[in-house]
Amino acid sequence: MKSILTLAGKEFRDGLRNKWVAGATLLLAGLAFVLTFLGSTPVGLLDVRPLAVTVVSISSLTIFLVPLIALLIGYDAIVGEAERGCLILMLTYPVSRLEIILGKFLGHAAILAVATVAGYGAAGAAAAATGSADAESWRAFAGLLLSSVLLGLAFLALAYLASVLVAERSTAAGLAVGLWLLFVIVFDLALMGLLVASKGGVGADVFPSLLLLNPADAYRLFNLSAFENVRQISGLSGLAASAQFSPMVLIGVLLIWIGAPLAATVLVFNRREA
Q1: Which of 8, 14, 46, 261 has the fewest CB atoms within 10 Å of its CB?
Q2: Half-sphere exposure of residue 8: CA atoms within 13 angstroms, side-chain side
Q3: What is the per-residue pLDDT across 195-229, written as a single tens digit (0 to 9) for each?
Q4: Where are the domains of the chain?
Q5: Closest to 253 in 3D by CA, of 232, 226, 207, 222
Q6: pLDDT tens figures, 251-274
């Protein structure tokens, strides 16, 4: 455990010195602030809680931005160390390959969590300051922060898997971009094409289950349908009624999307030559 924490601390300190991590945090905060104040403009006329509007706006932003940031943080976690010759040196230390993966992952996860919470937390506080926020809105916002971190960790785990499967950083970078395109854009387009091609053959009982095959869609379902005040303005009331997934099930799906790629990374790394 000490080795894991030591590696995690090193990765976290390196990340704090990395200007691109600070830039990612500022980007998340800046865009969240813009969406918060633009989205809160009409709420006084519509009797909608500003914080609920913020949850809808930020969750839509997160699906595109946080997975990309996570993939960029982790795509060279293993292959980059191998290219620099650091991996061979690291393996000479009294530390197992499992500890290397977990230590580096925890360090990168902490960086991602700090960037997400700091960036979105300030925007949430600003949204709450513009109007009254009820308890359910705060629960929805807390769920947004938690699920946004979990979504980032899911794509961070996918980035680690990509990093351990290839031999060059350029290949890992291309694979990371491909994963982002697949899960963020292509998957939903493919589902829409399937619905059109089947002419309704994919029923309401099957379609929601297919969404769980994508961590971004599980995240979307959680944030836009789990809380009543958010669901009323998200346009997903019909889908939420047909899906009938509890919030805990959707959080569990995100946890599986973290654990499964990370476990696969460890298995591949144990068979990989340094």
Answers
A1: 46
A2: 16
A3: 777 665 555 567 777 888 999 999 988 887 766 66
A4: 2-271
A5: 222
A6: 999 999 999 999 999 999 988 776
